[in-house]
Amino acid sequence: MFERPTGGERAVLVHISFRHSAEQLDLQELSELVLAAGGVPVTSITSHRDRPDPKFYIGKGKLEEISQVASFHHADVIIFNHELSPSQERNVEHEVKCRVLSRTGLILDIFAQRARTFEGKLQVELAQLEHLSTRLVRGWTHLERQKGGIGLRGPGETQLETDRRLLRDRIVVIKKKLEKVKQRRQQSRHARQRAEIPTIALVGYTNAGKSTLFNALTGAHVLVASQLFATLDPTLRIIELKGMGKVILADTVGFIQQLPHTLIEAFRATLEETSQAALLLHVVDAFDENLGDKILQVNQVLSEIGADQVPQLLVFNKADLLSDQKHPGDWEKDKEGKITKIWVSALKNKGLDLLRDALQGRLSIEKVYGVLRLSPAQGQLRSQLYELKAVVEEKIEPNGECELVISLTKFQWKKLCLQHGISQSLTEIAP
Known about the structure:
This protein is α/β, with parallel strands linked by helices and 431 residues long. It contains 13 helices and 15 strands. The strands form three sheets. The protein has a seven-stranded mixed β-sheet with strand order 6-7-5-8-9-11-10, sandwiched between helices. Strands 2-1-3-4 form a four-stranded parallel β-sheet. 31% of the residues are buried.
């Protein structure tokens, strides 16, 4: 159903600026999306309007211009940098005699090419089917009657009704499979929580350098490419942080302006890794002129998936490209002394040691300070507390017991309690 041409399709790009709209999409980003999909942008057409035309989205004069340009360049597809309704797509196609694709359809096509895992392919197929379900009419406009003739007499359905029923059936099957995937993810997540292993999720605008940073921190070999949505399937790796032990680092799909809601819903199970994380590494392209807007776009998507309350550490990547501003290794703190912003170069491995220290600091903000009494048989626990440099003061009793004043993170304390099967209660005292 979703076969694609093997060669690069020639695409005419259409971008409309609406005078009263606060959110304006980027034409350059659309061109990059087309290249990421394997297309060839041959030219672009821009226009200004107060509001979309209900029938064609654009005016009739601009429609004629698109038709002439598409014919001149022998274009295979007209791609709008906007979300067109199914009827608008059909109407424009009828006028320009060329296939029409909206921004959402283009992004779905890229995702279909990049999905590699079983889960990723299911998620993309679900998003495509839900998007396609409202656009079946244009595929069967030549069929005006119900099925009939020798060998074709059946239940009396029209071809359109048959396709809709088949789509609904397939969507139900995919959702059931994704529900099983979701349950497995939840089991894995609960196992990590029981083992007290925190998760750090990499989030950010697409092509900000998340996968490069992920590889630099973990030593993994996740695909890195200077194109939008190079990474689609999420990847988890364990890293060791000084004083913290094992931590899970999760590389996730990049966000984009007006990320289609069908994709957000389809990738809900995957994106839950983000909402359940202990910390978000919000990776930003420091060399991007529109980094402020892209930070807002990412935060908007995080809000939609319920991850807006998870603590963030802003990581400004590609800082080596900045000439007279911040440099790799620079950082900023808030009033509480927490590092909230850090500048690095993942490609050149600069500023990453400071980033690791910042991660350890952000995960160990909550401290436990109090008195702990240990018997002579608990020498291993005493030794581990010294290894963690958690012992502030020690007093040995005549009966061999020791009284320790300890200071360590809540994470470290819970992990020790689980390991040694002791109560998590501690006689707390003022530091």
